Amino acid sequence: MFSKKILYVGILLAAAVVLATGCTVASRAAETTPPTRTITVVGQGKASGSPDVASITVGIETLGESLQTAAEENRVKMAALLEAIKKLEIADKDIRTSNYSVYTERQPVLEPRDGTKGEGGTVVYHVNNQVTVTVRDLTKLSAALDTAVATGANNIYGVNFTVDDATELENAARADAVADAKARAESLAKLAGVAVGEVMSISEVGNGSVPVYYDSLKGMGSSSTPIEAGQLEVQTSVQVTYAIR
Length: 245
What we know:
Elements: H1 2-32, E1 38-49, E2 53-64, H2 67-86, E3 95-106, E4 109-110, E5 119-120, E6 123-135, H3 141-150, E7 155-162, H4 167-192, E8 196-213, E9 231-244
Antiparallel strand pairs: 1-9, 2-6, 2-7, 3-6, 4-5, 8-9
Helix pairs in contact: 2-3
């Protein structure tokens, strides 16, 4: 029994020595292996293209001393506007009600100078109905605006141009951003007296589209509302970390 205990103790001591030796070797290896040197840059990229979709928000506001009267007038005018817009072959799915609201306005009481009782203080009801129309054929955009005004629209909240599928522009902007990042890294590396190595990590840090300049929309008659479609510019940024050698 005593000899077995001695054997077990010997085995444990040997294992401890091996473990300690392994840790020491690993520690020395870590100390002698230099850390990977890197350089991190942010590249900017952009790509521009012509928009192919526009959206307009038009509204009809009616007033009346009776809410029912103002609402009915608004309903009739909006129905006529929508019917006229649809005759331009704009699909139902591209016409969306974006706001319907009612608010009251109390007229001030007029105080006559002769001391008699003033008149006024009546309530006026405002009914607003707005629709957002997506125009996928830009040659119909002026006609859509003219039609809306002709059929009673008295509020127009702007024209927004977009690209229906921005994938191609986004890819081009990313390629430009990566090339810019590579150029920046090489410039910094040259100043530091080192060379750019392989890509260690890359991530996109932001993108978006903005209008950049305007050009007259083709195909409009002289009697149409002049609209300029311009171009859209997609911008993006990428952060790239390179190894340096």
